Amino acid sequence: MDVIIKESYEEISRYGANILAVEIRNNPDINLGLATGNTWLGVYKELIRIHNEEELDFSKVTTFNLDEYYGIGIDFNKSPKEDQSYARFMHENFFRHVNINQENTHIPDGLVLLENLDDYCEGYENEIKSRGGIDLQILGIGKDGHIGFNEPASSVKSRTRLEILDETTIDTNWEKFYRKAGGKKEDMPYFAITMGIGTILESKRGILMASGEEKAEIIAKALEGPLTAQITASYLPIYHPSLTVLLDEAAASKLERYEHYKHVEELKRKFLK
Ligand code: F6R
Q1: What's the 195 CA to ligand 1 centre distance in angstroms?
Q2: Residue 31 — φ and ψ, nearest 5°?
Q3: pTM tops 0.70
Q4: 19-67 confidence digits (pLDDT tens)
Q5: What's the burial of 54, exposed, middle or buried (CB within 10 Å: 0-12/13-18/19+)?
Q6: Which protein residue has the closest C-alpha to ligand 1 atom 9?
Q7: How far is the CA of 60 from the centre of ligand 1 (A)?
Q8: Peptide bond preceding 226: is omega within 30 degrees of 0, i.e. cis?
């Protein structure tokens, strides 16, 4: 695990976007695993800039999103604010600004019927496998330590499935997204379809990004242990084969081994790059 700490959110966003841009240029038909939420907005914005100003080409890129709320779907009759689906989030904040082929973008379908759900989730997994697996998976972290929507007590072997959202997640996402859009708390979905921990751990490379003081405590627990199913991000340092963690100073502020990570980063910059 590499832990990279930068002064600000803007810096980690540029750094993250640069990793993605390099990976895409090296492997134009890369399979990317994508996340929604506030954390990655800066990276999407920077990738759009690189696309416009430096000709980063998305035409052969395939994407698989981590998750989608269950019970809602993209609805262009609603304004972007009213439509809280993750499909709309991706459309508004990324896909419509770059030359990605819509057919190569995959987001779990939040409107799939309950009786078809198991088959649907298996199909999502099979689609990932048939394309050769995810080359690079980007991840944010919830206040309860979730990655994707793998809430506390998710198994390390879990696969794409229906998940019941934790109270913390419902409160946080209502405040951050639904409430801002004028929605009532009752509007907030209680379920989501999410890739499993097992699915995420099979990605060839992972980047976990976090910003701000509100993530400092959970980041310290997730990265420095102890490993527990109650904080599903804590599976990453131990079981992910190639993980980069990008933090701003605020999110890194409670790490016990903060000095060590800074030292390693410094040595790498001096001698290995
Ligand atoms: C969303 C996802 C979630 C978020 C997490 C952090 O696709 O996978 O795990 O990454 O809830 O959300 P933000 O970035 O809004 O703090």
Answers
A1: 13
A2: -100, 115
A3: yes
A4: 999 999 999 999 999 999 999 999 999 999 999 999 999 999 999 999 9
A5: exposed
A6: 148
A7: 26
A8: yes
